[in-house]
Each structure stands twice: as C-alpha cells, then as structure tokens.
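Board notes, transcribed. Complex of a protein with MF3.
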Amino acid sequence: MISVKTKEQLELMRRAGAITRDTLRLLEDKARAGVSTAELDKAAYEYILKCGAKPSFLNYHGYPASVCISIDEEVVHGIPSKKRFLEDGQIVSFDVGAFKNGYHGDAARTVAVGKISPEKQKLVEVTRQCFFEALKVLKDGVRLGDIGWAICSHARSFGYGVVEDLVGHGIGREMHEDPNVPNFGVRGRGIRLAAGMTIAIEPMINMGTSAVDFCEDGWTVKTKDRLPSAHYENTVAVTADGAEILTV
Ligand code: MF3
Ligand code: CO
C-alpha cells in the first residue's frame, strides 16, 4: 500500500529531510584524503543525535553504522571502517538517513576526494543529472515507468550501466515503503503516483557494466567489472504539478 501524506506529515518529513541534508553537507566538508570512513560515520552519528534525531540506518537489518560510505567500484552500502582511509582521486558516496518525529529522510551524494579523472567527474555529474531528469517528469499521475525511463535513457546515452538489482523506494514512517522505484523502465508503464506520496529516487550509475556483486561482508555492493559507480539520492514529495525535494 502506498501512503499519501497529509500537509502536517509533509511538514514533519521536511524536518527529517533537512537534518539528512545537513548531515550530508557535513560529510562532504570532511571528505579529504587521509580521513577514515569510521571517523566520518562518527561525525554524522553525533550530528544526527545533536539534532534530536536518530540515524535511520543504524541497526537497520543489522547494519552496523549510521552512513553507507562507498568508494569507487563500490556501488552502495559500504560499511565505514577505522582501517579505510579516503585517498586522492577517489569518488566517494555518502548515503544517510535521519529519523525525526516519526519520519525518515534518506539521501546520498557522490563527491570527489582531491583531484579526480575527467571520466569520474563525468560519471558523478551524469548520475546527478539522472535524478533531475526524473524530477522533470515527476508530478501527480506520472507512471513509475516514465521515471525509470527518464533515468536510464539519460545514463545510457553516455554508455553507462544502470544498476537494476537495487531500486529507489517509498519513504515515510518507514525508511522503505511501497512502491519500489526502479532506475529503469518503459514509458507509459507502471503504476501512477499521486500528490502527497513521498519517494526516494536514487540512481546508481556505473561507468561500465550494470551488473553488480553482493560482497561477503553481507552489505557492500560492487560493480562486477570493478569500474567506478556513482549514487545520488533525494527524498521527494509528489505535488499536483511537480515535486518538492525534501533533502536539498
Ligand atoms: N539508503 C539506503 C536506501 O536508499 C538504505 C541503506 S541500507 C542500510 O535504501 F542498511 F544501510 F540502512
Ligand atoms: Co534510499
């Protein structure tokens, strides 16, 4: 069942979204060569608590941290570690959620550590554009296939692989609600969204193959060809004539 949020509920989701956004800003600021991913996770955890919120991911199905930090060929769900340090030339994705007053925000950004190659820069940019291509078509009555098409057709026009084994999702009182929001689709197909629905749109775009491996730590997802991958995500609310981004 897809829940439709009231004005009051949307206001609470804006609060959770703002904390999520600010946590990402903090992480982006701290993303420098030499910092450990555990240190970044700790900073995010402390910030979220300071805001009177809870990290949505911590203990979610046993996930052991507040942030997913995924570097280069890691697509999503990288686990922060005291032994893993950011290095110049890497792209790193931060994915974080905050739970406040009964509602979740969920968002992700991929950023450069120091100087990165033009190829990586392009991948990061196009992944962000994919989200905004989806946003252009998002409004009351749009079909999920139109959203997926907007994302995958943009990514594929650059020769990139679109991850199909992981998808976006409805969000609200639960971090993962109905419906699934795939980053691929066929125009004119799929269920229709309505004003008041809140979803997380999260393109995961690979420089090479769309195929991924699920790693032995039980969480980390990597590209099969070990080429880089980027991730960009926002929580959005569908409106009568468009959408409101809750995490920018
Ligand atoms: N942010 C992820 C998503 O968009 C969820 C992370 S899984 C977790 O669905 F276990 F780390 F929480
Ligand atoms: Co999500």
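The pocket of cobalt (II) ion (ligand 2) is lined by residues 106, 169, 200, 202, 233 (CB under 6 Å). DSSP finds four helices and 15 strands in the chain.
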